[in-house]
Structures are given as C-alpha cells and as structure tokens.
Amino acid sequence: MRHERIMPDGRKRNSVRFSIIDDEWPEVKAMLEGSPRIADHAATRLF
Predict the structure, then answer these.
(1) DSSP string spanning 21-47?
(2) Which residues are within 8 A (CB) of 8 and not within 5 positions of it... i.e. 6 or more apart?
C-alpha cells in the first residue's frame, strides 16, 4: 500500500502485506529456506 500512513515527522509510509494460507505454507517455507538471501538473514536471527 502506498502512502498508507503519515508518520509523526510527516513522511508517508508504504507497507507490503502477504497472505499465505495453511495449505500453501509448506511450499512457501521450503522456497524461503532455499533462498540464499533469506537463509543468510535468518542465520543472524534467533526465532
């Protein structure tokens, strides 16, 4: 969504929303885990 929210300093904030249903999750999860960019980012976080 573009310019969804006006921030206290006057900037306009954009947002992205994703929707994944239960049946889609295993495939999406496998794709994300196989992505080097996602894997590198996940390695720096504790879930």
Answers:
(1) -GGGHHHHHHHHHH-HHHHHHHHTS--
(2) none
Count of Cβ atoms closer than 10 Å to residue 42 Cβ: 13
Residue 33 is assigned to a structural domain of this protein: yes
Distance between CA 36 and CA 26 in Å, rounded? 18
- Please indicate, yes or no, if residue 4 is contained in any of the structural domains: no
pLDDT at 23 over 90: yes
The answer to the question of residue 34 being in a domain is yes
Q: Which two tokens stand for residue 33?
A: 């885990």
Would the pTM count as exceeding 0.70? no
